[in-house]
Every structure is written in structure tokens, then in C-alpha cells.
Specification:
- The complex is a heterotrimer of chains A (265), B (88) and C (856).
- Chain A is 35% helix and 21% strand.
- With 265 residues, chain A is of the alpha+beta class.
- Chain A contains five helices and ten strands.
- With 88 residues, chain B is mostly helical.
- Chain B has two domains: 1-56; 62-88.
- Chain C is built from 25 helices and two strands.
- In chain C, strand 1 and strand 2 (538-540) form a beta hairpin.
- Classes of the chains: A alpha+beta (265), B mainly alpha (88), C mainly alpha (856).
- Chain C: It holds the Pfam family COX1.
- Chain C: It is found in: Membrane.
Chain lengths: 265, 88, 856
């Protein structure tokens, strides 16, 4: 893997001009549909439940309005089922159809998220991400390493994520990309940002005292600015000027925690 | 089952254990690893079934006891198989 | 309640009764009270961190304090509150519902309770050992190993040991409940006919039996990493190598697999009893039979089975491959569907009913509504694309609280429902309804805003400012929810004195057998032998029973006396298993004439106390401190001594004269208990072997042998040990044959031979280990010890666990040899047979360890 990354050292930076469907768009669409349907189903089922509970409530009159229609259970009887099983099956079938078709529909979207856009046309920028307590190292194809993630706008970015100490999880919530950072394993995820700006990356798996503060910036730059920045990093090696050591990160965490009024153990 | 039957089972178990070691001493593990693997594991399974069926009397118990044992075995195999497959 | 026939049990007003009792109803009450204590414990922790979350970055607990509070809140609620609370009802109600006079092994039941209580105390003690466990209730590796635990980390080790103790309690309980439910049902009561609450408990214990065995494996491995220095969960040994060059690349994922293989069934283990309570309350308070009962039951069975093949949906982002993701997505969706059916079944049960909004019904209905919301939001997680983004966020937190605490809601309904049965008094209905109102409001105010603020990462105290309003609301909701319990405690406590006396059945339309006897029921539950033979509950008098048993001579054989003892605790408390198994070997204490069932024993308490001291000692042995070492020694001796005492104590727990026993009619209860226990032991060893296979696959199956194992590790010692064990198995069988033929000399000779061969096995293993520890080669200059690499860790720990099983077997074997010498077992070889089941099982395990660890 590392070898293939080095071959990107003198990579050209193709643009996709924003026509790649970003993971965030996929997420938003599915989430919206689920929210709408979920709310609708929830309201209907809860209302239906309450309707039954209230309609058949005992009015306290002491008479059984359904005495001639139904037989009431008696003390000591062998448990048996009540009538009305058919309605249960109808309702169950409707719910099963909704659930199964919803999930089936999302499966095709999953394949897109798993495989990413067609890479033959969209040469992706590959960045290695290493989580450690309590920060991130981003290793670019030329070996340059930063603690802040710099990426160009409108370009597919593929992350190879791992961790060097404990289990972390790397996520950029606004860009809807997230993957586990597991020591000893590589996971991959991709995203593309259509707008420049600074986003937040966070750790989503409890990793120790500094977990709450294990955040970093993701800077999305216009293509030319990024190229300029990247060109300058070419001379630097893997021990790049911007890398914080774990000790420095600990200091940062401590400082931030102190600013918040506490001290991590 | 009387002691003669138990003895026959014992002899078979003893022979199979020896056979497993022979597979290794013959160098099959080095030359054809997966064939040796399959052979050795099959021998182990046969031995285990023999002990369970005769020494633990599963043959003569209600089938439900066998299902109970199989339940545990299937659960353990599901864990092993699926977990190992997931990272292949 | 009259005291004159309590068979040596002091009255309820006496403190000593509660330490001595083995009666299922007393133990049920103990479980309920203890579980409520842990609810308060876990609840206060939750309030502490909710207080911190009132605004982003507020600092109340410090970051490690916060992590500890979050982690122990989860552990306490999941392990020490919700399941034991449900098992309080299970203890009290299940024997009554199925027509049994107690559980099959009353002393083991008491032992379960005391192990549970002391495991909780050990959990509490961990707070005072520096820091307690702070790695989240999911305990992900390698944050759960000492290398990443600040300070000495003894508190964290104590938590792991407390969980092992808890798991031992659960395993004992599962064996006990299964044996009870398959051997002690009232005549005419087929499995499908038992009341839905008992049925839900039956399926729950089935899941427990297997799921907790996997958890036990995970915890034992973790404890070994903590105490013995194995490296299962460390991906690299010196902590400096890069992940890609790691010695053990499967470390982190191994924990995730083991934990979630347990963890997902655990969700249903928690929820099923609640479902059972809901179904009971719906039937009683609507005056309708459960609609589609058959399908309701089939759904539950399907869920119980499927629960073992959905665990990887907790691991979608760990890099598992797409085919396995697809399979687990399908099984996950599949497992959600039976719940839809159950929900509709409950809804339609209300139709044409006479719905009475009593407190238990309000809680049940509330639980149903909360569960519907929890279920719908769970479907979101089934869509993997959404799941990816929900991973590690408050969406997950909100969803599982809506499900799990919905379950707790139903259980609180159960508390009101059975309160009059347990106490003989009626609670205050108005206060009950007020509590429900406050509870329901607090619940939704607490958890619903979490859906809106779902972008908050889990287990952090810093979140985006825009979400503050929702977190503040949640905190307020938490306090309202907490306050509702003050009302409940007040109500239930005061009603003990002020409550109206109730007769056998305060609820119109209740049908199950617990309502047919007085409140509280008498010590031995029923005025006669319960029977459903005519399709309706009756109590048979002694004459009828004698008549029936004479008519069916096969059935009479079951009336013989059998001691309680049972199979074993689990490997966690190794010595506990030893003598508990030995207890099983103790045949009936012959007594002349009619003997009443026993109800009192002090030993379960002492065994658990000893275990607690031993485990507390173990938590600190790696520091070498004399204090901890002596605690471990004293505790070990105390445990062993009290187990011997328990084994030798005459205790009478007769099998029922007439009972429905499908499908285990011909399997006497001790044998069934032993087999059930062995089934869980299969999963324990299976998980150990599975762990070995997994880390080996992760490393590279074939490179493993070449890279990590010294040439000095040869086949021969393993082959010799295989011969020794096979021969010893053969001798146990011969001992049985000899006992059958009443040859005392033959029996003793065969048992002595078994013992000698077992000792030979251990000596051979010891020599082999000594050799490997001290080799000095180019590849392994410092020997091949437990910590050398992952291959040595798996080798020593797996064969070590097996060796521990052998050792326990030898202790039992020695005990039985002495008894055989004194003339026991002649003409009745059952005890030898049951010991044989265990011994042959240990043999079978070796048949797989030998090739896997010596040849391949």
C-alpha cells in the first residue's frame, strides 16, 4: 500500500467539477426518506395503539359490552391464543414490505458508497490517516505529514485509515465520511467536498482521557491553492515540519482541557 | 455397551491419534499443508464423535441432548467461521 | 405467613433467613432489591454526567472521571441492573407459573444470587482502587488492556474480574432455569403451553447459556492479558512498531467479534423478559388472550436463534468485507421483522377488551410505545449507508435507550403487577399513576432530544454549541426520570404497611398459576401437586398422585431423592467449578422415610464471599503487593473450603412425582444439568479456539507457524498427552462398568488409574512448558513465554484453560476415589457417569487442541 502511495508522488490533480455524487448527498437523500417514512409510520402505529387502548377502555360501569361476542380468560386455564390472527398478519406484512423495500433501495446506494465513483476517470487523491492518542496524522502521497487535513475542492479523496495505539474512529460529519481506525488494520473511505472552507474531523470511538478533544480541522481549498501548497511540501520528507509528536498533542489536549477548567488524567 | 465395545472404541481412538502424528512425521504438513490440515481435522472430528456417541452415551440418550450439544457447537463454529471470513 | 413448616428456615423477619435461604421466592426478592440498588447506583452516575453535559465542555468530573462515569453507568445498567431485575421476577414467578415447588437446584440458585451480589460489590470496590474501568461498556481493545489504562489500573482489572464473577452467576442460573423448565413442569403443560412470561425467560436463558459463554471467553482472555501478561488484545508488544508491522493485527477486531457475538444476543436477553411482562399485563388488563399467540412464540424463537448471527452489524465500519456486510445486513433486517409481528399482536390484543389503565398496564403500554419508536429508529441503522454516519453518535445512544429502557419500563410495570403477589399488599394506585406520568415525561424529555442532537459523538463532553438546548433538555429529563423513582420507592415502601391486604388474585382476568395461590405463596408454593391434565389447573392430593404414579411406573422412578448440587459454575471461578461439579457427583444422601425438601444453606453465601476475596486479591497480584497476594490466597482457600462444605452438606431437593418433561423425559435432572453446562462449556472453548483461529488468520495462517513458533515446540509431548487422556477416558468408562457390576475393587482401580493418567498429563505438560519457557535460540533468545508473541499467548492460555479443566476433574476424581473406596457407587453408577461426561468432554477438547496447537 505504502508503495502505491509513493508512486503518486508526482500526481496530477484531476477535477471532477462537482459532478461526482458526494457521500453527503447520498446520506441526506436516504436520511430524508427514512425520516419522513419513519415519522409517518411511527405516528400511525402509535395512534393506532392509542386508539385501541382508548376505544376498548373499561368504562367502569361494571358491564362487559362485548360479553356476547368474546370469551374472557379464566383463572387456571391453559394459555391459548386469542382470535384476530389474520389482522396481525396483514399488519405485519405491510410493515415487512416497507422495511424490506426501504433497505433494498438503500443497498444500491451502499454499493456506490463502498466502491466510490469510477476511479478510472476520477483519479483519487489518496491520503493515509493514522489515529493516535489524541490526534491524527495525514500522510500525503509524497510522504508529507500534517495534523490538519488539507484537500482540494471537487476532487475525490480516498482515505486509508488506521491507528497506531488504540481503536479510534475518523469522521468528518459535515462531509458524511466516517470509518474505524483500527490498530493493525486498514479501512478505507472516500469523500469529496464541493465547497471550500474549514470542517471538523472528530474521533467517534472512546479512546481515553483526551477523546472528547480529539478533533482537528479539515481545510478544503480551491484547486490552485492546494496545488501551490502541495508543491511546497514536495521537498519535505515524512518527518515533515508540521507534524506534532504524540507528546506535543498531549500538551495540546492538556492545554485545551485546562482552558475548559479541568485536567485530563 | 459392555467393556469389549468400549475397548474397540479405545483402540480406534488410539490409532487415529497416532495417524494424526504420522501425517506430520511423514512430512505431509510441509508438502501439502491444506490436504494434511483437512485430513487431520477430519480425524479429530471422527474421534470426537466417537467419544461423544459411545463414551458419553449420546447414542442412547434422547436426541434432544444431541441437539443441545450441537447447538453449542454450531454457535462456536458460527463465531469462528464468520469472524475469520470477515477479514479475508 | 405461618412459620411452623419452614424446614429449618428462620422467619422472614429474621436477618439470618436472607443469608440462608435457597427458596426461589426469597431469592427473587433479593434479586429485585439488589437490582434496584444497582439501578440507583448506575442512575446516579448517569445524572452526574448528564449534569456535566448541561453545557458543552462543562467540567464536573474531569475527563477521566467522565469516562469512568459513562463506562460504569453502562456496565452497571446492562449487567447489574436490568437482567438481574428481570431475573428477580423469573426466580419468583417462573416456578409458580410452571407448577414447580422450587428451581431444580435451589442451592445453586442461591449461589447465583450471591455471586451476583458480590460481583456488584467488587464492581463498587473498583472505584476505590485508583480509577475504575474507563473504556466504555463495550470495552474495546486495546484500550481495555493495562498498557492504556492510566495508573496501576487495578480498578479496571477488578471490573473485568467482577464481570467474570457475574458471568459465572449467569451461567449457573441458565443451567438451573433450563433444567427446571424441562424437568419440572406441571402435568399436562407442554413447552408451548407455559405462560408467555415463563416462555420468554426460557428463551432468554437459552441465549444466556451460549452468549455469556462467549463473553466469559472474552473476559478470561482479557483478565489473562491483565494478570498473566498474555498479548491477545495488544496489536504490538513494545508499543513502538507501526500498525502495519504489528505482531498481532487481529487484536482489536478479536475483541469486537467476541464482545458483539455476546453483545447482540444480550440485547434480546435484556428485552425478552420485558416482552414477557408486557404480554402478561396486556392479557390481564385487557381481559383478552394474546392474539396470534402461536406466532408470537414462533417469532420469539426465531429472534432467539437469529440473535447469534447479527453481531457484525455493530462492526460495519471495521473494514469487514462487503459480502459479510451484506449477509449481516440481511440477517439484521430479518430479525427486526418478528418484532413487528409481536408489536401488532399486542396492539390487537386490546381489541374488544376491557382495558383497565392500572399502573402495570400504563407501564406496559408506555413500554410498547417507546419500543415502537426505538424499533423504527433501529431500522435507520439497518440501512448501512445511514449506519456509517450514525456510528458512534447519539443516534445510537438514543435508539438503544429507547429499546433497552423501554424494556426496563415494562419491568417496572411487572414490579407493580406482581407487587401484591410478592408482598400480599396492594400498592397505592394513584401514586403509581403519578409515577408513570412523571416517568414517561422524564423518559421522553431525556432521550428524544438525543435524536435531534444526534450529531453529538458518543462519550464526549464537548459538543457543538448549537446542540446545547437539546442537551440541557435531556439533562432536565434525566432528573425528572430519576425523581419518578423516588415516588415509586415511597409508594412501594409505604404500601408494605399501609397497603390493603390482597387475596390470591387482585387482578380480574389473570389466568396463570401464581394467582391461584395465596399472596405471598406458601413456602412450597401449592396446596397440592399442580396439574393441567384436564386442560385446567387443579391441585392433586397425595392419594391421586400415588394412584397416578403407580399407574405409570416409569414416572415413579423420578420420585427418588436427589441432592441438589448441580453441575458447576463456570471456568471463571475455577475452584467454584471444581467443587460444584463435585457436588453433582454426590449421589442421594440416603435417608429413611419421608423427607421434606431442604430450604436453607449457608454455603452459597460463603462460597461467594470467598470468591469475592479471591478475585479482589487477583486484581492486584501483578503489583506483587503482599496485601493482594494474601487476599487471593485466603479467598482461594475459603472458596475451596466452603465448596467442600457445600458438597458434604446433606441437601434434599426432590424431583417432582409427576411432571411434564418433554423432550428430556429420560434425562435425570443432574444429568440434564451437566449436559446443559457442558453445552455452554463448548461455546467457551469454541470461543477460545475461535480466537486462536481469528488472530492466526489475521496474522497469516501459514506464516504463523514459521514466524512465531520455535522449532523446539514439537509434536511428541502433545501426542503423549493425547494417549494419556484417551486412556483415562477409557478407564472412566471401565469404572462405570465395574460399578454397575458392583465390583468395588474394579471401580477403585479404574478411578485410581484415571487419576494417575490425569496427573501424568499435567506433569508432561509442566515439563513441556518449562522447556519452552527457557529455550534460548536465535529467534527466541529469551525463551518462549506467555508474553513472547501472540502464538505463545494463544498456546499457553488455551491449553492452560484445558489444563485447569483437567485439574478440576482430578479433584473430583480424587474425591470420588475416596468415596468408592468407602463402598459408594456400587450398583448405582450415575455419579461416575456424570463425572465421565465432564471428563470425556475435556478429552474431546484436547482432541482438537492437539492438532491445532501441535501439528498444524
Amino acid at each position: 500500500m505504502a508503495v502505491s502511495l509513493i508512486t503518486y508522488a508526482t500526481v496530477v490533480f484531476p477535477l471532477h467539477g462537482g459532478d461526482v455524487r458526494a457521500p453527503s448527498a447520498v446520506f441526506d437523500q436516504i436520511f430524508e426518506v427514512f425520516l419522513l417514512l419513519g415519522t409517518a409510520v411511527g405516528v400511525v402505529v402509535v395512534a393506532y395503539t392509542m386508539y385501541h387502548a382508548l376505544k376498548y377502555r373499561d368504562d367502569g360501569a361494571g358491564t362487559d359490552p362485548y360479553a356476547d361476542k368474546v370469551e374472557r380468560p379464566e383463572m387456571g386455564e391453559m394459555p391459548t391464543g386469542g382470535a384476530g390472527g389474520r389482522k396481525v398478519f396483514y399488519s405485519f406484512s405491510i410493515s415487512a414490505i416497507i422495511v424490506v423495500s426501504l433497505i433494498a433501495w438503500t443497498y444500491s446506494q451502499l454499493l456506490y458508497i463502498e466502491q466510490g465513483p469510477d476511479l478510472a476517470q476520477e483519479e483519487a487523491l489518496e491520503i493515509d490517516v493514522e489515529g493516535y492518542r489524541f490526534g491524527w496524522d495525514f500522510v500525503y502521497p509524497n510522504g508529507h505529514t500534517t495534523n490538519t487535513l488539507y484537500v482540494p475542492q471537487d476532487r475525490v479523496v480516498r482515505l486509508q485509515v488506521t491507528a497506531t495505539d488504540v481503536f479510534h474512529n475518523f469522521g468528518i460529519p459535515e462531509l458524511r465520511v466516517k470509518t474505524d481506525a483500527v490498530p493493525g488494520q486498514y479501512t478505507s473511505a472516500w469523500f469529496t467536498a464541493n465547497e471550500t472552507g474549514t470542517y471538523a474531523a472528530k474521533c467517534y470511538e472512546l479512546c481515553g482521557s483526551g477523546h472528547s478533544l480529539m478533533t482537528t480541522d479539515v481545510v478544503v481549498m480551491p484547486q490552485d491553492e492546494y496545488e501551490e501548497w502541495y508543491a511546497e511540501t514536495n521537498e519535505t520528507d515524512a518527518g515533515g515540519n508540521e507534524t506534532a509528536t504524540a507528546a506535543e498533542t498531549d500538551q495540546r489536549i492538556t492545554a485545551e482541557a485546562t482552558a475548559l477548567g479541568g485536567a485530563p488524567a | 455397551m459392555d467393556w469389549k465395545g468400549y475397548t474397540v472404541i479405545y483402540v480406534v481412538l488410539f490409532a487415529f491419534a497416532t495417524a494424526q502424528a504420522v501425517v506430520e512425521f511423514a512430512g505431509l504438513v510441509d508438502s501439502a499443508y491444506w490436504a494434511a490440515f483437512a485430513l487431520i481435522m477430519v480425524l479429530s472430528v471422527i474421534k470426537a464423535v466417537g467419544v461423544a456417541a459411545y463414551y458419553q452415551h449420546l447414542r442412547w440418550e434422547p436426541r434432544a441432548v444431541t441437539y443441545l450439544v450441537l447447538g453449542g457447537t454450531v454457535a462456536a463454529l458460527a463465531l469462528t467461521g464468520a469472524a475469520a471470513y470477515s477479514i479475508l | 405467613m405461618s412459620q411452623e413448616h419452614e424446614h429449618g428456615l428462620p422467619p422472614k423477619s429474621s436477618v439470618s433467613r436472607w443469608f440462608l435461604t435457597t427458596n426461589h421466592k426469597d431469592i427473587g426478592v433479593l434479586y429485585l432489591i439488589t437490582a434496584l440498588f444497582f439501578l440507583v447506583f448506575g442512575g446516579v452516575l448517569a445524572l452526574l454526567f448528564r449534569l456535566e453535559l448541561i453545557s458543552s465542555g462543562a467540567d464536573l468530573l474531569g475527563s477521566m472521571g467522565y469516562n469512568q462515569a459513562v463506562s460504569t453507568h453502562g456496565l452497571l445498567m446492562v449487567f447489574w441492573f436490568i437482567s438481574p431485575f428481570a431475573f428477580g421476577f423469573a426466580n419468583y414467578i417462573v416456578p409458580l407459573q410452571i407448577g414447580a415447588d422450587d428451581l431444580a437446584f435451589p442451592r445453586l440458585n442461591a449461589l447465583s444470587y450471591w455471586l451476583y451480589l458480590f460481583s456488584g460489590i467488587l464492581m463498587g470496590v473498583s472505584f476505590f482502587q485508583g480509577t475504575t474501568f474507563a473504556g466504555g461498556w463495550t470495552m474495546y481493545a486495546p484500550l481495555n488492556t493495562p498498557a492504556y489504562i492510566p495508573g496501576e489500573g487495578l480498578g479496571a482489572t477488578s471490573v473485568v474480574l467482577a464481570l467474570i464473577m457475574f458471568t459465572a452467576a449467569v451461567t449457573l442460573g441458565s443451567v438451573n432455569f433450563l433444567t427446571t423448565m424441562y424437568r419440572m413442569r406441571a402435568e399436562g403443560l407442554r413447552m408451548r403451553d407455559i405462560p408467555i412470561f415463563s416462555l420468554s425467560i426460557n428463551l432468554t436463558v437459552w441465549m444466556m447459556l451460549f452468549a455469556f459463554a462467549a463473553l466469559l471467553a472474552a473476559l478470561m482472555i482479557l483478565a489473562s492479558d491483565h494478570i498473566l501478561g498474555t498479548t491477545y488484545f495488544q496489536y504490538s508488544i513494545d508499543g513502538t512498531t507501526m500498525a502495519t508491522d504489528a505482531d498481532n493485527p487481529g487484536a482489536s477486531l478479536l475483541w469486537a467479534h467476541l464482545f458483539w457475538f455476546f453483545g447482540h444476543p444480550e440485547v434480546y436477553i435484556v428485552f425478552f423478559p420485558a416482552l414477557g411482562v408486557m404480554a402478561e399485563c396486556f392479557q390481564t388488563f385487557t381481559g383478552r388472550r394474546l392474539v396470534g399467540r402461536k406466532w408470537f412464540i414462533i417469532s420469539m424463537v426465531l429472534v432467539a436463534l437469529q440473535s447469534f448471527v447479527v453481531w457484525m452489524h455493530h462492526m460495519f465500519l471495521t473494514g469487514i468485507n462487503l459480502p459479510i456486510k451484506t449477509i449481516f445486513m440481511a440477517t439484521t433486517i430479518g430479525i427486526s421483522l418478528p418484532f413487528d409481528l409481536m408489536v401488532f399482536s399486542l396492539i390487537y390484543t386490546m381489541a374488544k377488551g376491557r382495558v383497565r389503565f392500572t399502573t402495570p398496564f400504563l407501564f406496559s403500554l408506555g413500554a410498547l410505545i417507546l419500543f415502537i419508536i426505538g424499533g423504527i429508529t433501529g431500522v435507520f441503522l439497518g440501512a448501512i449507508v445511514l449506519d456509517y454516519q450514525f456510528r458512534g453518535t447519539y443516534w445510537v445512544v438514543a435508539h438503544f435507550h429507547y429499546v433497552m429502557v423501554a424494556g426496563a419500563t415494562a419491568l417496572f410495570g411487572g414490579l407493580y403487577y406482581w407487587y401484591p403477589k410478592i408482598t400480599g399488599k396492594m400498592y397505592n394506585e394513584t401514586l403509581g399513576k403519578i409515577q408513570f406520568g412523571v416517568y414517561f415525561l422524564g423518559f421522553n424529555l431525556l432521550y428524544f432530544p438525543m435524536f435531534i442532537a444526534w450529531e453529538t459523538p458518543r462519550r464526549v463532553f464537548v459538543y457543538p454549541d448549537g446542540l446545547q438546548i437539546w442537551h440541557s433538555m435531556a439533562t432536565a429529563g434525566g432528573f425528572i426520570l430519576g425523581a419518578s423513582f423516588l415516588i415509586m420507592f415511597y409508594n412501594l415502601f409505604m404500601s408494605l404497611w399501609r397497603g390493603e391486604d390482597v387475596g390470591p388474585n387482585p387482578w380480574e382476568y389473570a389466568t396463570s398459576a401464581e394467582w391461584a395461590v395465596s399472596s405471598p405463596p406458601p413456602l412450597e408454593n401449592f396446596p397440592g401437586v399442580p396439574s393441567y391434565a384436564t386442560g385446567k389447573l387443579e391441585f392433586l392430593d397425595d392419594e391421586t398422585v400415588t394412584e397416578r404414579t403407580e399407574r405409570a411406573p416409569g414416572a415413579a422412578a423420578h420420585g427418588h431423592a436427589a441432592t441438589d448440587g448441580g453441575t458447576a459454575t463456570d471456568g471463571g471461578a475455577v475452584t467454584a467449578r471444581a467443587a460444584a461439579t463435585a457436588t453433582a457427583m454426590e449421589p442421594a444422601h440416603e435417608t429413611a422415610g419421608e423427607e421434606h425438601a431442604s430450604h436453607a444453606s449457608f454455603w452459597p453465601f460463603l462460597v461467594s464471599l470467598g470468591g469475592f476475596i479471591a478475585f479482589l486479591g487477583l486484581s492486584g497480584v501483578r503489583t506483587g503487593s503482599v496485601f493482594y497476594l494474601s487476599l487471593a490466597a485466603v479467598g482461594g482457600v475459603a472458596t475451596f473450603g466452603s465448596l467442600v462444605g457445600m458438597t458434604r452438606e446433606p441437601f434434599h431437593a426432590p424431583e417432582m412425582a409427576i411432571a411434564e418433561r418433554w423432550p428430556f423425559e429420560r434425562v435425570e435432572k443432574m444429568k440434564l444439568g451437566m449436559w446443559t453446562f457442558l453445552a455452554s462449556d463448548i461455546v467457551l472453548f469454541g470461543a477460545f479456539i475461535g480466537s486462536y483461529a481469528f488472530v492466526r488468520v489475521a496474522y497469516g495462517w501459514t506464516a504463523w507457524h514459521h514466524d512465531l513458533i520455535p522449532a523446539e515446540h514439537v509434536t511428541m509431548p502433545g501426542l503423549i498427552n493425547t494417549y494419556l487422556l484417551l486412556t483415562s477416558s477409557f478407564l472412566v468408562v471401565l469404572a462405570m462398568v465395574a460399578a454397575e457390576r458392583e465390583s468395588k475393587r474394579g471401580t477403585v482401580a479404574a478411578l485410581v488409574g484415571t487419576f494417575a493418567l490425569g496427573v501424568g498429563f499435567l506433569i508432561n505438560k509442566g515439563l513441556e512448558w518449562q522447556h519452552l519457557f527457557h529455550i534460548s535460540t536465535e529467534a527466541f533468545p529469551n525463551g518462549w513465554g506467555l508474553s513472547t508473541n501472540i502464538a505463545s499467548s494463544t498456546f499457553y492460555l488455551t491449553t492452560g484453560l484445558h489444563g485447569a479443566h483437567v485439574t478440576i476433574g482430578l479433584i473430583i476424581c480424587a474425591y470420588m476415589t475416596i468415596r468408592a473406596w468407602n463402598g459408594a457407587y456400587q450398583g448405582d453408577d450415575r455419579a461416575i457417569e456424570y463425572f465421565g461426561l465432564y471428563w470425556h468432554f475435556v478429552d474431546i477438547v484436547w482432541l482438537f487442541l492437539f492438532p491445532l496447537f501441535y501439528i498444524l
